[in-house]
Design goal:
By secondary structure, this protein is mostly helical. The chain is about 65% helix and about 0% strand.
Length: about 90
């Protein structure tokens, strides 16, 4: 049986991510650790989803599987952008 996922949280998360990227850049989502310079900060990823859930027009709390699905998609997008930055730098 397939799970039904509320895509409104995903759409709101993507919009929130884009706004944060425009305002703060990709470095905002990276941990400040010299040993692992391109590691994502999980608290910042969760911040995107929490903000999207608060700003969303839905009156109900998102289901846990919708929350996890949104987290995976946001992480995937951030990883894609980090890899793009690494290729531009020449790493």
């Amino acid at each position: 049986m397939a799970d039904i996922i509320d895509l409104s949280l995903v759409a709101a998360s993507r919009k929130t991510l884009q706004k944060l990227l425009d305002a703060r850049g990709i470095n905002y989502f990276l941990k400040a650790d010299a040993r692992q310079p391109f590691r994502l900060d999980p608290t910042r990823v969760d911040l995107v989803i929490r903000t999207a859930a608060k700003l969303g027009k839905s009156t109900h709390k998102p289901a846990p599987h919708a929350w996890e699905h949104a987290r995976k998609l946001i992480r995937r997008e951030l990883i894609r952008r980090v890899v793009g930055e690494m290729l531009q730098v020449g790493l």
